[in-house]
Amino acid sequence: MWQIHPFGEGNTRSTAVFLIKYLRKLGFAKVTINLFAEHAWYFRNALVRANYEDLSKGIYKTDRFLIRFFENLLQPGGGVLKNREMHVEYRLPVDDTVNDTVNDIVKRDVDAVLDLIKQDNTLTAVDISQQLHISLSTAKRRMKALKEKGLLERVGSDKTGTWKIL
Questions:
Q1: Per-residue pLDDT of the chain (166 residues; tens, 9 = 90+)
Q2: Helix 125-132 and helix 97-119, axial crossing angle in degrees, nearest 10
Q3: What long-range pairs does 160-163 form, CB within 8 A, spacing at least 24?
Q4: What is the C-alpha to C-alpha distance for residues 158 and 126, in angstroms, rounded to an integer?
Q5: What CATH number should be reported for the domain whose range is 97-165?
Q6: Of 3, 17, 87, 97, which sits 20 to 30 A from 113 (CA to CA)?
Q7: Dist. CA 124–CA 120, nearest whole Å
């Protein structure tokens, strides 16, 4: 039915009315216009995605959004209907707990560097790496990050100078 589009205007509404009549005839007496009304835009976009295809752009027809809509229509309480999921460029959200863990470790290292410098402002990157059991390059990166954030400043020469916490 959704592939025909027999009317020039109101195709979505007309398709919804005919689908309701058809589903009621099949025995789904509780089917109402409510879901169509609440999710008209989703229904319309699902119809489009079921029929639109542009192989040169890697866009293929898919009926999965219509199926999701009908599942919600026939079995209320189904999945959430979100238009953004139908966008051709849509990407599923990523649970980025890996970066959260890495950021926690970096913050802990940076805080530890600051604590060490508070105790002894003459420490070198080598001293910090040894005391924190991190590589020399990691210690230098942490100190550089602190300087870039304006939390740490070197006073005097690199060899004989001291650190100043801002």
A1: 445 555 455 677 778 888 888 888 999 888 878 777 787 888 888 888 888 888 888 778 888 888 888 888 787 666 777 777 776 665 545 555 555 555 565 677 778 888 888 888 888 888 888 888 888 888 888 888 888 888 888 888 877 888 888 7
A2: 120
A3: 162/121, 162/122, 163/117, 163/121, 163/122, 163/123
A4: 13
A5: 1.10.10.10
A6: 97
A7: 10
